[in-house]
Write a structure and sequence with these properties.
It contains 20 helices and 16 strands. By secondary structure, it is an alpha/beta fold. About 45% of the residues lie in helices and about 15% in strands. The protein has a six-stranded parallel beta sheet. Helix 12 packs parallel to helix 15 and helix 12 packs antiparallel against helix 17. Strand 4 and strand 5 form a beta hairpin.
């Protein structure tokens, strides 16, 4: 029975245009969304932009623009970047949308009516860049570690949210993995925060901030940016603010709730592990199933910074490596969940090794060999995958389990666990396997001698490449389609196959007509 799968990125703050950090999260989410669609799960993928708050008001003013005009431009730059990278999101939500703002008001009114929001006074150290109050422990030499600025001491009338009320319940759910946080070290970090610092009631509104959602019971206050932004995960799938939610009301997609995976970088883990689930408990809604936290990128050992001049944008990547090259390099740049160190030199090296000399070269030489087979008037023969073992002692050159069915099990498990980089290693394993297989069987000699085994050997090579294309599809969809076309297959037919059928051995017709195309990944010259 097929399942549902709902995945989100954070909604990106529109104080600046997209960079490689945003790209990393979004490409990863797209890979997982495409994978779940491929295996037959009913899938929804949400991304978008977070557009309210005092900081946006300030940045827009500096740019000489009204907040709406400013946010329209930046939101468009994100949408363009994701279109260029072939991101398959089902919805791009903007928090300045009227529909979203109305539901935010409904939700906050519900929480207020429940007694979870009350008028108080908030005092503390406020970082404008983070739009968050900071504890002394959060600061490095008195400054916000992310923005390198000294937080302002603020004291203002504010509507407060009873975050402390939900500490014990949330901690229990986190420990039991009812609200799962991955990788496990991030779960432990959150548990440590709960146990050592606890949860205090927090400010849920700002006074005299015009650019935001007005509180329905007191229009002199606007909603604190996080309380507004978090609700996108619900409004983005059509929630209208009703409790309990109706799955299909007014065209909504609430059957997708709860989210199966919220992907994000580590800087917003704490708010997602405290404020957001507490809001859901207040509203009487289910918690997301999983928060998956990935790390930061360093650029050649340095933090990415405009002042240093080392910011890498999605457009930079696509311009140099093409769409699928950019997607691959970002997805494979680090162990997913850890920090990574990247740079143009590292990207060039990986592009040539894995793509130009790897999968690209494998396809080109395999098509060329098949053309020679046809010239020799020898037909492809599907003798079954085990045919390869009868030719030679394969374990002497490649000590691994090589049946494609075993590789598919590993691939599926890894992507189900959101281990994106390790799933890519399974694909590299296939390429290495075939390179070694070609070296060991010497099909050019078999073809030259019109050896009866040549048809079986070449079928094994092409059929394994068909499987590689399917594995590649979530990561590099255009590349997968080009491979299928080179194998003489109809792309739409391949895409419409049920997954269980597609991964069986023997899907390539023996009478297929291969086609030589342009190089998948032209080699980069130094």
């Amino acid at each position: 029975m097929n399942k549902k799968f709902y995945i989100t990125t954070p909604i990106y703050y529109v104080n600046a245009s997209p960079h490689i950090g945003h790209t990393y999260t979004t490409v990863a989410a797209d890979i997982l969304a495409r994978y779940h669609r491929m295996i037959g799960d009913k899938t929804f993928f949400l991304t978008g932009t977070d557009e309210h708050g005092a900081r946006i008001e300030e940045v827009a003013k500096k740019a000489g623009k009204e907040p709406q005009e400013f946010t329209d431009e930046i939101a468009a730059s994100f949408q363009f970047a994701w279109d260029e990278l072939n991101i398959s999101n089902d919805r791009f939500i903007r928090t300045s949308e009227e529909g979203h703002k109305k539901v935010v008001q409904k939700a906050l009114q519900k929480m207020y009516d429940n007694g979870d929001i009350y008028l108080g006074k908030h005092e503390g150290l406020y970082c404008k860049g983070c739009e968050q109050y900071k504890n002394e422990k959060d600061l490095v030499e008195g400054k916000c570690p992310d923005h390198k600025t000294v937080p302002e001491k603020m004291s203002e009338e504010s509507y407060m949210f009873k975050l402390s009320k939900y500490k014990d319940e949330l901690l229990k759910k986190i420990k039991k993995d009812e609200f799962k946080i991955l990788p496990v070290e991030k779960k432990n970090e959150v548990i440590s925060f709960y146990e050592n610092e606890g949860l205090n009631d927090i400010s849920f509104s700002r006074k005299n901030v015009k650019w935001g959602v007005k509180l329905p019971w007191d229009e002199s206050h606007t909603a604190y940016v996080w309380s507004d932004a978090f609700l996108n995960y619900l409004t983005g799938i059509g929630w209208k603010g009703e409790i309990p939610p109706t799955p299909f009301s007014k065209g909504g997609n609430m059957e997708f709730w709860p989210a199966d995976a919220h992907l994000m970088s580590k800087d917003i883990l704490r708010v997602h592990a405290t404020i957001w689930p507490a809001m859901l408990l207040s509203l009487g809604l289910d918690l997301p199933k999983t928060l998956f936290i990935h790390g930061y990128f360093m650029i050649d050992g340095q933090k990415m910074s405009k002042s240093v001049g080392n910011v890498i944008t999605p457009n930079d990547l696509v311009k140099k490596y093409g769409v699928d090259g950019a997607r691959y390099l970002v997805a494979s740049a680090a162990v997913f969940g850890n920090d990574g160190d990247i740079g143009w030199g590292k990207f060039d090296e990986k592009y040539n090794a894995d793509l130009a000399n790897g999968i690209g070269n494998l396809l080109a030489r395999s098509i060329a060999l098949t053309e020679k087979l046809r010239e020799a008037a020898v037909e492809l023969q599907n003798k079954g995958e085990n045919f390869q073992f009868s030719i030679f002692n394969f374990q002497t050159i490649f000590n691994d389990q090589i049946l494609i069915s075993k590789n598919w099990v590993d691939y599926n498990v890894l992507l189900d666990l959101i281990q994106i980089d390790k799933a890519l290693e399974i694909i590299k394993l296939q390429v290495k396997f075939l390179d070694n297989y070609i070296t060991a069987t010497k099909p050019w000699e078999l073809i030259k001698n019109k050896d009866e085994k040549s048809g079986g050997v070449m079928y094994n090579i092409l059929e394994r490449i068909r499987h590689i294309a399917l594995m590649v599809y979530p990561f590099m969809p255009d590349t997968a389609e080009k491979i299928w076309e080179s194998l003489g297959l109809n792309v739409q037919e391949e895409m419409s196959k049920k997954f269980d059928e597609a991964i069986k051995w023997g899907g390539l017709p023996v009478d297929t007509k291969v086609k030589k195309g342009e190089a998948l990944f032209p080699r980069l010259e130094k």
